[in-house]
Design a protein that fits this description.
Among the domains are: about 140 residues, FAD/NAD(P)-binding domain (3-Layer(bba) Sandwich); about 100 residues, 2-Layer Sandwich (D-Amino Acid Oxidase, Chain A, domain 2). Helix content is about 35%, strand content about 20%. It has twelve helices and 19 strands. Strand 7 and strand 8 form a beta hairpin. The longest helix has 24 residues. About 45% of the residues are buried. One of its GO terms (molecular function) is FAD binding.
């Protein structure tokens, strides 16, 4: 999924992307009103929407961005080719050395090299080969395991809301969550996650029972009458990693690192693609203000990217701080304090329209986490859940017709 902050960034850089996705079947889900959410604060009320997320498969999202980019005659794609090293010096990167699958190698000169190669980026080593060392890295391991599976929704259930069910991360015992996201062609992308003895397995016959035993069985009831389209995919790659390129004592001209190449986040929060899009827009704005070859342009862009990274990193790691972690990669005390504060805000958002609006604005990556420290939000966190929580999911008439809970009728 793509948060509205990231979607707007892509649309600004590639006009027409939103229309392409919509025509291909991607859903534009309003936030928070389009989400039926159970959190430690209870069922969230259906507050008015001010933001949104794009819900679709990764293949659909990538394909249409790729189509728009490659339609530009100035773009040339080198297929079946990989980067092997940076060329230039510690003062300026002047290009890359590439190799084909057949083993042919050659150099490509460039005014600006952008590393958007993802979590497996080798830039730290390539910089070391140029004499730039000491790039600080941080890793936060997690014991969270998640499993995902795609379903074909029954025809009568096509149109289900996005559903999120979560246990309190700070309570004793295993922590578990579940998310159902409606995507193109009447399908549901379902993700289940848990820690320790509460982790999901790859067993096909265990997927629905796991969803049914979450704090509310809504997701399990929905997928129990849907047809699975894929096997269960399980991953424990839920940790977060960051490379602090912006803090390097020396940074070469002609090189910018962005996206997952600079930081990765727990995929449970769906931030990665949105943050990468914001990084690209930050680079665009930097180049619009500064000359490409002006001293400090690359470092200025890297620092702008770092500010956006810090916002997403803070949100992700503070939530992860409430889960069990490996002792050698644990969150800091500050991370844990932020996690407890966000948990209080989540409780407040279940019953406060103002708290929900601000929290959604930040999690949709349309505002800085600093907004969460406004006096009104500090008060909301102090009060916590000040109204009686809803006893039933806050479904609209249309959503209720889709969900149709025979076992959990509403009064």
């Amino acid at each position: 999924m793509l948060m509205s902050g990231g979607a707007k960034a892509i649309e600004a850089l590639l006009p027409g992307a939103l229309e392409h996705w919509a025509e291909a079947g991607a859903a534009k889900i309003p936030l928070p009103s389009g989400v039926v959410s159970y959190t430690p604060g209870g069922w969230h009320r259906q507050w008015p929407a001010a933001h949104y997320l794009i819900a679709c498969s990764r293949d659909l999202l990538d394909q249409h961005v790729r189509d728009i980019v490659l339609a530009d005659p100035r773009i040339r794609l080198l297929d079946k080719t990989g980067v092997r090293a940076l060329t230039g010096s510690a003062q300026r990167v002047t290009g890359v050395r590439v190799a084909s699958r057949e083993g042919l190698e050659w150099c490509i000169d460039a005014d600006l090299v952008i590393d958007a190669s993802g979590r497996d980026s080798n830039t730290v080593n390539w910089l070391a080969a140029l004499g730039i060392t000491g790039i600080r890295e941080r890793h936060i391991a997690s014991t969270l395991v998640y499993a995902s599976r795609t379903y074909q929704a029954p025809a009568r259930n096509n149109g289900a809301p996005l559903v999120q069910i979560a246990t309190a991360p700070h309570t004793p015992g295993p922590r578990q969550t579940g998310t159902l996201i409606p995507i193109e062609r009447g399908r549901w992308q379902v993700s289940l996650a848990g820690t320790g003895s509460g982790a999901p397995s790859e067993a096909k016959d265990a997927f629905v029972p796991f969803a049914l035993q979450l704090p509310h069985p809504m997701i399990g009831q929905l997928i129990a009458r849907a047809a699975p389209l894929t096997d269960v995919q399980v991953s424990d790659a839920t940790g977060s990693s960051r490379r602090y390129f912006e803090d390097a004592r020396h940074w070469p001209e002609g090189l910018v690192v962005l996206g997952d190449a600079t930081a990765t986040y727990n995929p449970l929060y769906g931030q990665g693609m949105s943050v990468a899009a914001l990084h690209a827009r930050a680079l665009f704005h930097t180049l619009a203000r500064m000359q490409l070859h002006a001293p400090g342009t690359a470092r200025t862009a890297q620092k702008a990217i770092a500010r956006l990274t810090e916002a997403a990193w803070s949100l992700s790691t503070s939530q992860d701080a409430l889960y069990p972690h490996a002792a050698n990669a644990a969150p800091s005390l500050a991370d844990r304090a932020k996690g407890r504060y966000l948990n209080r805000l989540s409780q407040a958002a279940a019953t406060s329209a103002q708290a929900a609006a601000t929290l959604t604005q930040v999690t949709a990556l349309e505002a800085s986490p600093a907004r969460l420290l406004k006096p009104s939000m500090l008060l909301a966190a102090g009060l916590g859940r000040w109204r009686r929580p809803l006893a039933y999911p806050p479904l609209t008439d249309a959503q209720r017709a889709v969900v149709n809970f025979a076992d959990h009728p509403e009064p």
